[in-house]
Amino acid sequence: MDNADNLFHPSLAAALMKLDPDDGEQIMEYFKTHALLSREKALLQASVRDQKKLLVENAKLKKDIEQLRNQLQDKQRRRTARALLSPAPPPASLSSTSTTPVNQPASPAEALAAVPTNPHPPSTFSQDRRDRQSRRRRGDKKARPSSDLLSLGAEPRVDVSRLDLRVGRILSVRRHPLAETMSIQEVDMGENAPRTVVSKLGGKIHLEELQGGLVVLLCNVKACKMRGVASQARLLCCSTSDDCIELLAAPMGSTPGDRVTFLNYPGDPDRELPSKQRVWELLQPDLQVDSRGVANYKGCGFEVKGKGLCRAPSLTNCIIR
After folding, report:
1. CA angle 286, 291, 297 (to 5 degrees)
2. What is the rounded distance in angstroms from the CA atom of residue 224 to the CA atom of residue 200?
């Protein structure tokens, strides 16, 4: 940082001394101190911005390294599987043939010597061939389970960036005609048509209070029928017990279709979560509401860029489900 004496032109100090000989020097010192504080504040803000950029870049690098490591593991598994599945080389007795050149006819004595004394009948050769083929097939069947086990050892990326979390506005709410504990919501997701969502909130929340509210939904779950009604998304709620439940609220100013992101977990969500991997079940224990009422994943807040954080209306220190 430059010297404080060089922040202002000497003529300014001289002018202040003429205007106020008693307090001119103190006023000048105040100006210098204020200017130094402003410069330090600007440098601090720049360092904070740089730190955020570094965090984002580090997260991207970690993701790239994880993808490269998975690709390397897949290549090693495929190479091992090919080695296990490759057929065994033929026996030396079958590959060995007569060394008599084609262009030179063999002498009668050599021809007689080349004829085996006990030739195998054709049926014996065919039987041997079938035995070798059956042994090869059995070897293939034994090798396949090992390759399946190798493929099961793959470790796909499992973090919150795989969830397609979006803001929606509840247009209407009604009770499920076949289940008193369920309700059916029509939710505007910023798409061509609203989505139908079935949730188990019938006996826990006053349904009339939900209409018009901004909520957070998991949109890339596979559509499933619940008591005959197809549910196309999942409403996120927070609870301290089965009797105390609140819907997770999107920040003010959000619009239907806004995506909920996480600073430390960049990436695009899955088109549809594979049911066999149970991604939601693996991530749910780390989805919580902290002591300030902010929804987070491993300490990283649910954020709608430029609009704020998702929160619980009144609950704190509880789980998200």
Report:
1. 20
2. 14
Q: Sign (positive/negative) of CA torsion 43, 49, 52, 57?
A: negative
pTM reported for the whole predicted model: 0.52
Length of the chain, in residues: 321
SS3 at position 82: helix
Beta-strand relationship, 295-297 and 300-301: antiparallel
Identify the H or E element spanning 67: helix 24-85
* In 86-207, alpha helices (H): 92-95, 108-114, 122-152
pLDDT tens digits for 105-118? 455 555 445 545 55
Distance CA 188, CA 215 (A): 10
| Dihedral of the alpha carbons of 47, 51, 53, 57, in degrees to the nearest 10 | 150
Unique residue bearing structure tokens 């991207």: 60
Question: Two tokens at 305?
Answer: 């860029």
226's enclosing H/E stretch is strand 224-226
| CA neighbor of 313 nearest in space, from 206, 180, 221, 231 | 206
Pairwise CA distance, residues 177 & 172, whole Å: 15
pLDDT tens-digit readout, 236-266: 999 887 778 889 999 999 999 999 999 999 9
Give every CB contact of residue 28 below 8 A, 6+ residues apart in sequence.
Answer: 8, 12, 13, 16
Cα end-to-end distance, the chain, whole Å: 52
Q: Measuring CA to CA, which residue among 221, 179, 219, 222 is closest to residue 199?
A: 179
